[in-house]
Amino acid sequence: MKYLSSLILSLALLMLWSCSDMGDPLSCSSGYDCTGKCGGDATLDCAGICDGDAISNGTNCTNISYAATIQPLFITDALCTSCHMHDVSFFDHANILSKVIAGDSTNSTLIKRLKGQGLTQMPMGKDPVGSPIITLIATWIQEGAKAN
Q1: Nearest CA to 108 among 116, 99, 117?
Q2: How far is 138 from 115, CA to CA, in rounded Å?
Q3: Contacts of 41 (CB under 8 A, 6+ apart)
């Protein structure tokens, strides 16, 4: 009888322990944030950056970061690296500034090239860049093309 009581108590404790939520990836009941933390509160901003500073004004993002949003588009999303990978400085903020008019995205060479407006459309030999990406880049230019 003593053995049976110990067995029942052990099984009951095992069942309770197996149903607990200790942040284990296999048992997270409160959901994951964008960093992968169980129950965390980090969220994607409107530019798609985890815990980023971009702000949605309903239709567009504002407060776009060059380092967190714009530069990775050129490098990691391979918009430019297939042709410009030989020139690492191409992706430096100072060099990109030579292709934009801060505060005037409409007349910026970068936007004209991405849209194919009077200039060869970039990226060459690839599908055109989608409107959401062009809008992010144009908004960053409109906001002054800051090195943030």
Answers
A1: 99
A2: 11
A3: 33
Residue 120: HSE in the Cβ half-sphere, 13 Å Cα cutoff? 5
Nearest CA to 79 out of 63, 94, 96 is that of 96
Domain residues for 101? 55-142
Pair (101, 72) in one structural domain = yes
Question: Do 90 and 18 share a structural domain?
Answer: no
Is the torsion defined by CA of 122, 125, 126, 128 positive or negative? positive
Q: 96 and 133 share a domain? A: yes
Read off the pLDDT of each residue in 81-94 and give the average, rounded to a whole number. 69
User: Which alpha helices (DSSP H) does the chain contain, by range?
Assistant: 2-18, 71-75, 81-84, 93-97, 109-115, 131-142
Look at the block and give the residue holding tokens 């095992």: 14
Statement: the pTM of the whole predicted model exceeds 0.70? no
